[in-house]
């Protein structure tokens, strides 16, 4: 088995686009500030770290002071919290959820299980290192970290968003091939998600040399086109088949 | 009135409504926080949320009807603001009148229904079906209240209604003359704002915020702007009908904030009713109180 850690990862420096608007920097600064002060976190938790979030949200620690609010759908959310071990089955759902979120989006790995597998190191069914499959912006270590630590981590993320360092979402587009390779390694060659990541990368001008590669070619070979869900209602005949309840 | 002043008022009135609406949203969240013994969000939080949401990127489109739905939702309220007189600015209120206003206030729900229908999410469809049913429920007492007030003052012109109330002082206020209708109006207000006993169509834990389920980035930002307008419109309408409108900005804003604070405070004390329970409740109590009030007014 090829060790994932030894793969050479090219890290590309972000290309500064030329801006024509003289106030562009002011607007950027304003938007970055507002992004850091208003973070909607997705109400989706894995593992045992989730138990530390209700105290962080309610009266004792009150995350809303910092502008952090829970949101219920990935479309509305900015932060994806992975709170604990991610089994392979869960990881599929996490990736589906992550790809549905609107950019800029941030992933926080809470608990030591997301850092190195933690006490599930020897488990065959657990993804050990989260940042091989998703771009993690921040880890909060601990088993489990107390609400103080969670809030401290959130403040750290706020600083990083404000200074523009938290750009894991760009990394996912730039090195999609590498992330997809690790995902395929775990889920099999026919792994696919409904989101068109390569299309989005070129839409955002983030497509780099690492966006496409052998793994995305494999994806394109195996990819089945999504079909719109269709529901048929049969009026008449089908009622008789069901029998008893209609007699 | 010259055309320049009118145009300036048409721009200023929605802007003022938006700014006041931001503070109403802040008050909503602060009241919730205080009742739960939390500190609550900072002063500018509603603005941070809106700027951030407009700064988000997305490649996904649910079709042009989805875009138009949001424009209708915000635009309906922007139109409503120009029909609501505030101190010093009448806009086109004396040409529109109460009936137009009631009609215009239904447009946002219909726009939302069009937009959400396009995104093909089952939770969204369930949510919007419930929202329109809720509209059916609270509109019956609401129309009775509006009819009663118009009958009592003998006009559907909001500017005249406010002038008559202000001429009589507190004794001339609609709430003093028609207490039963004022109570029925508060009931309808609770439903109109979609607050807790009547928020089955949002239901975050069950149908994932219903109509908002597929709204990301700028779409959700549009809805946040709409919420500011919605709180302001409902508050100002109630103040204009029952509390004598605004003599000056200080008293006007005080009245609006007090009126909007009532449903918010009630909201955080209740769980929610099912849709059919809501209709039964809305068509029974506020309608009964409203009809009784109407009988007193007409007699």
What descriptive keywords fit this protein?
heterodimer, A: 247 residues, Rossmann fold, three-stranded parallel sheet, two-stranded parallel sheet, 10 helices, 7 strands, globular, B: 299 residues
Question: What is the gist of this entry?
Answer:
With 247 residues, chain A is α/β, with parallel strands linked by helices.
Question: Secondary-structure blueprint of this entry?
Answer:
The complex is a heterodimer of chains A (about 250) and B (about 300).
Chain A: H1 24-37, E1 39-42, H2 53-57, E2 68-71, E3 79-83, E4 86-87, H3 88-100, E5 106-110, H4 112-116, E6 126-127, E7 138-140, H5 147-163, H6 168-174, H7 176-187, H8 197-203, H9 214-222, H10 238-242
Parallel strand pairs in A: 1-2, 3-5, 5-7
Antiparallel strand pairs in A: 4-6
Helix pairs in contact in A: 1-5
Chain B: H1 3-35, H2 45-54, H3 64-82, H4 93-104, H5 107-118, H6 122-153, H7 158-167, H8 174-177, H9 179-192, H10 204-207, H11 217-242, H12 249-267, H13 275-298
Helix pairs in contact in B: 1-3, 1-11, 1-12, 2-11, 3-5, 3-11, 5-6, 6-9, 6-13, 9-11, 9-13, 11-12
Overview of the structural elements:
The complex is a heterodimer of chains A (247) and B (299). By secondary structure, chain A is α/β, with parallel strands linked by helices. Chain A has two domains: 21-165, Rossmann fold, CATH 3.40.50.12280; 167-225, no CATH class. Chain A contains ten helices and seven strands. Chain A has helices spanning 24-37, 53-57, 88-100, 112-116, 147-163, 168-174, 176-187, 197-203, 214-222, 238-242, and strands at 39-42, 68-71, 79-83, 86-87, 106-110, 126-127, 138-140. In chain A, strands 3-5-7 form a three-stranded parallel β-sheet. The radius of gyration of chain A is 21 Å and the shape is globular. The termini of chain A are far apart. The relative contact order of chain A is 0.12. Chain B has 299 residues and is mainly alpha-helical. Chain B has one domain. In chain B, α5 (107-118) packs antiparallel against α6. The radius of gyration of chain B is 19 Å and the shape is globular. Chain A binds chain B through residues 30-31, 33-35, 37-38, 58-59, 62, 64-65, 67, 72-73, 75-76, 78, 101-104, 199-200, 203-204, and chain B through 29, 33, 36-42, 44-45, 47-49, 51-52, 55-60, 204-205, 208-209, 212-217, 220.
């Amino acid at each position: 088995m090829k060790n994932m850690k030894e793969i050479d990862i090219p890290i590309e420096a972000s290309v500064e686009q030329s801006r024509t608007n003289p106030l562009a920097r002011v607007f950027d600064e304003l938007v970055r500030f507002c992004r850091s002060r208003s973070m909607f976190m997705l109400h989706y938790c894995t593992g045992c770290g989730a138990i530390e979030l209700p105290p962080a949200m309610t009266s004792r620690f009150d995350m809303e002071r910092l502008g952090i609010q829970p949101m219920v759908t990935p479309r509305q959310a900015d932060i994806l919290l992975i709170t604990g071990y991610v089994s392979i089955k869960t990881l599929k759902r996490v990736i589906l959820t992550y790809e549905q979120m609107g950019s800029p989006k941030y992933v926080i790995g809470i608990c030591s299980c997301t850092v190195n597998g933690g006490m599930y190191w020897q488990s065959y069914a657990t993804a050990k290192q989260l940042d091989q499959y998703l771009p993690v912006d921040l880890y909060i270590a601990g088993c489990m970290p107390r609400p103080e630590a969670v809030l401290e981590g959130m403040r750290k993320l706020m600083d990083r968003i404000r200074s523009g360092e938290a750009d894991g979402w760009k990394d996912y587009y730039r090195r999609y091939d590498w992330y997809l390779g690790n995902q395929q390694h775990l889920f099999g060659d026919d792994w696919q998600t409904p989101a068109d990541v390569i299309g989005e990368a070129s839409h955002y001008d983030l497509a780099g040399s690492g966006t496409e590669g052998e793994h995305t070619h494999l994806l394109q070979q195996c990819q089945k086109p999504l079909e719109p869900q269709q529901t048929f209602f049969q009026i008449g005949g089908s009622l008789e088949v069901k029998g008893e309840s209609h007699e | 009135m010259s055309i320049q002043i009118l145009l300036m008022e048409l721009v200023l009135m929605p802007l003022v409504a938006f700014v006041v609406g931001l503070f109403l949203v802040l008050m909503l969240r602060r009241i919730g926080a205080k009742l739960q013994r939390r500190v609550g969000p900072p002063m500018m939080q509603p603005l941070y949320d809106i700027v951030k949401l407009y700064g988000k990127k997305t490649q996904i489109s649910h079709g042009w009807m989805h875009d138009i739905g949001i424009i209708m939702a915000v635009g309906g309220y922007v139109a409503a603001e120009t029909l609501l007189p505030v101190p010093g600015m009448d806009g086109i209120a004396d040409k529109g009148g109460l009936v137009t206003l009631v009609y215009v206030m239904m447009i946002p729900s219909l726009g939302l229904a069009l937009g959400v229908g396009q995104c093909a999410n089952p939770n969204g469809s369930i949510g919007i079906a419930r929202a329109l049913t809720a509209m059916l429920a609270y509109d019956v007492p609401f129309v009775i209240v509006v009819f009663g007030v118009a009958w009592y003052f003998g006009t559907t012109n909001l500017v005249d209604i406010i002038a008559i109330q202000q001429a009589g002082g507190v004794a001339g206020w609609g709430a003093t003359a028609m207490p039963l209708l004022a109570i029925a109006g508060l009931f309808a207000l609770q439903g109109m704002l979609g607050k807790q006993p009547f928020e089955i169509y949002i239901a975050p834990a069950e149908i994932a915020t219903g109509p908002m389920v597929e709204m990301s980035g700028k779409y959700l930002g549009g809805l946040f702007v709409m919420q500011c307008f919605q709180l302001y419109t409902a508050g100002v309408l109630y103040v204009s009908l029952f509390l004598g409108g605004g003599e000056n900005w200080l008293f006007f804003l005080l009245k609006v904030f007090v009126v909007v604070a009532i449903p918010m405070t009630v909201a955080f004390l209740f769980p929610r009713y099912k849709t059919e329970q809501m209709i039964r409740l809305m068509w029974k109590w506020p309608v009964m109180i409203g009809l009784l009030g109407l009988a007193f007014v007409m007699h």
